[in-house]
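We keep the chain:
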Amino acid sequence: MRAMILNQHTASKVAEFLLQIKAVKLNVQEPFTWASGIKSPIYCDNRVILSYPKIRTFIRQQMVDVIQEGFGKPDVIAGIATGGIPVGALIAHELELPFAYIRSKAKGHGLQNMIEGIINPGQNVILIEDLISTGGSSLKAVDAVKENGAHVKGVISIFDYGFNIAKENFKHHECAYLSLSNFQVLAQVAKEKQYITEQDYEYLIDWHQQKV
C-alpha cells in the first residue's frame, strides 16, 4: 500500500475555502449530532462546493493532480454515493475517462446493481469520496469494485477527519487513500483566520485527540 503525502499548501487552501463557503461549520458551544449519534463540534457538507464554480474547479484540479502524480491515469473514475458522485464526474470529464458510481447499497429492484455504469474486470479504478470519517462507506465501495473483478488504485476525498479508525480500516483493506485537507489543518486555518478563538481551537484539538 503506497503511503500518500498531504500537500500542506493545498490542504490549507482547501480548508480556507471550506470555511469561507460554510461547507464546514464549527460550533463548540452547541455541538452537532452526526447520524451515528456522535456529538461533534464540526459538521462538514462538501456538497456546498458545487454551488461555487471557482472553488469547484480548484477542488477538481487538485484531485486530478493527485491522481496523475500519485497514482497514474486509471481506466475508470468512480464516485461514491452520494457526495463523491458529482465531483467524480467532473474529474472523469477532465481526464476524458469513463465514469461510474457506487451505491451505498444494492438497488432494491431491477438489476439490483450496486455499481452503476461500467467497470470491467481487470480495470484500474480510482474512487472519489467527499468525506472520510471512519472509512466505512468508502471501503464498502472498495469491496464492491473488487468483487466485480477490478482493481482499486486508491480513494481520494476532499476532507478527512483524521480518525485512527479510518487509518486502521484502510490499512486492513490494503487500500491507499488521500484527502486534500483534514481536521488538523482546518482547525489551524480556522484559528489563523479568526473563525474561532484560541480557546475554541484548544477545545477542537482536545475533542479530536479523544477521537483518535
Remarks:
- The first helix runs from residue 8 to 20.
- The radius of gyration is 17 Å.
- The first strand starts at residue 24 and ends at 26.
- Strands lie at 24-26, 32-33, 39-40, 42-44, 76-80, 99-102, 115-116, 124-132, 151-160, 177-182.
